[in-house]
Amino acid sequence: MMGSEHSSQTETHLCRVAVAILNWNGLVHLQRFLPSVVAHTRGEDRVFVIDNGSDDGSLDMVRSVFPSVHIVQLDVNHGFAGGYNRGLDALLSDWDAEWLLLLNSDVEVTPGWLDALVNAANESGWSAVQPKIRSVERRAEFEYAGAAGGYMDRHGFMFCAGRLFDQNELDHGQYDTDRTVFWASGACLLVQTHAWRLVGGLDEDFFAHMEEIDLCWRLRNRGLTVGATARCHVYHLGGGTLQQENPKKAFLNFRNNLFLLLKNDHRPGIRWRILFRQVLDGAAGLRFLLEGKLAFVKSILNAHADFRRNRKKMMGKRQKEMVSCKVLAAGADSKGWYGGSIVWAFFLQGKKKFSDLDTDRFA
User: Fold this and answer.
1) pLDDT score at 126
2) Which secondary-structure segment (H or E) carries 38?
3) How many CB atoms neighbour CB 204 within 10 A?
4) Are 139 and 202 in contact (CB under 8 A)?
5) What are the φ and ψ backbone dihedral angles of 129, each rounded to 5 degrees?
6) Is 33 exposed, middle or buried (0-12, 13-18, 19+ CB in 10 A)?
């Protein structure tokens, strides 16, 4: 069961941007971060809280303290992907929004953020865009989840301008340009409503990690583009759902990365690339073993086992994606690809900053 408060069942309302915050027992986050969102969302834009079946009193707090915020209430916790899919379906049944803004509940926004994002997307022709994302606790430092925009290396490893693996850079304006990227962060992701509908929203098989990268890749495969703008920035606490050093996140990381590649990398030779990636995962498992992190070794083994169980299903999705993208495949954007190995560059060549990477290796 789901319901949408502050809206009519028969009348469709208009808004430019629907800012959608997914909540599951996030009372503390909403108390801390929702004030900035409400304060800096004005005019034709609206704020929505999509609730994943919370029982911590967070919705009562929103109703009493933030009466302008619209609530979409789901019956149970459907995860990140499922919660957004169901919540936005309900939202869009009552609201005609040009843009959707997926915003984590632990994000502090800044004045003018929505105008900056919309203007950057319109001027650059992007279907999705993120701002610069800094850390709430270390405010001059880029935050892990997205930093200044996401990229992909030839083996399917993701990294960001401003963040390579666990190395976050200080933001001193080195990435202050609007750039087309491979993927944008789901911590603060503006996406055109028609583009969201075109790809069918988020893939719920990912549950709660890398689903926004999957979304961006599917947009790209249809000839659409994704960007990162420096016209605004937000502050992200991070770790609100899964801590970075967490075996559950490690499981999702390794499994979903294989899902991503099999489903969306439509270049010939995918079987060999999957096999090579699994070998690299094995090397990571050996490193965890030597460090005594047995729970992380188990996470990798479980991730590969779950990938095998779901391989046929993902192959079916791959085939459907290839058919859906066939007409626009020739127009798919190549920007955001890194032709080298980020693992080699970081661990063996000592390149710890995005700016250290060879610019001629980027498409």
Assistant:
1) 98
2) helix 27-39
3) 17
4) no
5) -155, 150
6) buried
Mean pLDDT of 273-279: 95
- pTM of the predicted structure, to 2 decimals: 0.93
Which top CATH class is 2-236?
A: alpha beta
Tokens representing residue 234 in the block: 């937000």
Distance CA(95)–CA(16), nearest Å, equals 10
Show me where the domains of the chain are located: 2-236, 247-332
Per-residue pLDDT of 200-259, as tens digits, reads 999 999 987 899 999 999 999 999 999 999 999 999 998 544 445 689 989 999 999 999
Q: Which residue has the tokens 């390149």?
A: 351
Rounded CA separation 276/43 (Å): 51
Tell how strand 95-103 and strand 179-181 pair up. unpaired
- The answer to whether 106 and 29 are in contact (CB under 8 A) is yes
- 56: pLDDT confidence band, cut at 50, 70 and 90? very high
Tens of pLDDT, residue by residue over 285-339, are 999 999 999 999 999 999 999 999 999 999 999 999 998 886 444 445 678 999 9
Query: What distance lies between CA 238 and its chain's CA centroid?
Result: 12
DSSP state of 271: H
Alpha-carbon dihedral angle through residues 264, 267, 273, 275, given to the nearest 10 degrees: 70
DSSP 8-state class, residue 183: B
Strand runs (DSSP E) across 110-208, as ranges? 128-135, 150-153, 158-160, 163-164, 167-168, 179-181, 188-192
